[in-house]
Amino acid sequence: MELTLTSPLDMHLHLRDGEMLRTVAPLSARDFAGALVMPNLVPPLTTPEDVRAYKERILDAIGEEAFTPYMTLFFLPEYDYDFLQEVKDDILAIKLYPAGITTNSEGGVENFSLDALAPTLEAMSELGIPLCVHGETNGFVMDREAEFIPIYERIAKRFPNLTIIMEHITTKEAVDALMRFENLYATITLHHLYITLDDVAGGLLRPHLFCKPIAKRPEDRMALRKVAFMAHEKVMFGSDSAPHPRSKKEAPGCAAGVFSAPIALPALAQLFEEAGVLENLQKFVSDNAQKIYGITPPAKEVKLIKEPMAVPERYGDVVPMFAGQTLAWSVDGV
Ligand code: DOR
Ligand code: ZN
Predict the structure, then answer these.
(1) Which of 46, 130, 142, 318 is most deeply packed, by most CB within 10 A?
(2) What's the rounded Cα separation, in Å, for the pair 88 and 79?
(3) What is the mean pLDDT of the chain?
């Protein structure tokens, strides 16, 4: 059995910088035609110059592959219309992090009152710049995403022309909210389609599956699977592949992030085939994102075949999801 995907896209990706960038970027560029690249570097990307220089480093790291890095800027409430107009052509979206909620987000938003955010959001809405959101409060870890939903609703209501992407949704509540507003969309990761909290902490602790938002309950995973498997037009694939070196994961204070980019397409094919919905994978990994963002990625055919993929124990110093295991599908010719 085989499946050819046209221009697969990963609409939420962490590529890091320096040596890590050179390790991980070629792995995404091999399997995908493009990716939305997150801005949470140290320091975060907050100027057009930062974004342009980082894009050059990404292009340098991937070499000849047909792969478009779609760039993002780190949301700051002080961005005004003139600034956004200047940066608009260098980015596809702006990513909003609550302050301190995850890796390198310390400079994020502290005050979610609409008064504080309105000028920037108004300008983004007028200029047609989508807003990507890490939607978690700093409440109890299992409730953080559900608690953030009223904030999504307030923004969605006040700015009906602003495209808002609920990033890496993990709960039934988020799926429900998504359906209530025309201007809300969402990315769904591979790991949240596969795992629940039990896989992370139900037996021996599995640090390589620890991420933010944390994986939730079986009924949440079911709600995510439902909309992903039908390739609902409001959802698209975003891996949130977030590499950390082993020393940061296999440590008393484990960094959040699952590294899934190099196994994402085979693992998705396996999951969609098992669910009997392989024909919907093209929409989930490309067509929906093209419509939501209005982008045309480079033409690239990626052929998947139902032949075993032995997942490496490591890529460089990073342990991937499914390390040492065998997946039922592989990318042909890689
Ligand atoms: O698990 C995560 N890792 N979640 C995030 O939101 C950020 C990411 C990272 O950058 O490591
Ligand atoms: Zn992320």
Answers:
(1) 318
(2) 12
(3) 97
| Length, in residues, of the chain | 334
| Residues contacting residue 100 through CB under 8 Å, at least 6 positions apart | 106, 108, 138
Residues within a 6 A CB radius of ligand 1: 14, 40, 102-103, 134, 211-212, 240, 242, 256-257
Q: What is the pLDDT of residue 334?
A: 47
Task: Give per-residue pLDDT as tens, 275-306.
Answer: 999 999 999 999 999 999 999 999 999 999 99
User: What separation in Å is there between the alpha carbon of 107 and the centre of ligand 1?
Assistant: 15
Examine the pLDDT at 120 and tell me if it is beyond 70.
Answer: yes
Architecture of domain 2-333: Alpha-Beta Barrel (3.20)
pTM of this structure: 0.98
Residues 6+ apart with CB under 8 A from 96: 75, 108, 109, 131, 132, 133, 134
> Residue 189 CA: which ligand is closest?
2
State the average pLDDT over residues 240-262.
Answer: 98
The set of catalytic residues is 240
Q: How far is the CA of 263 from the centre of ligand 1 (A)?
A: 18
Percent of the chain at pLDDT > 70 equals: 99
* Average pLDDT of span 187-208: 98
Give the ligand at the shortest distance from the Cα of 242: 1
Query: Which of 12, 16, 40 maximizes ligand 1 atoms within 8 Å of its Cβ, making it the mutation to test the pocket?
Result: 40
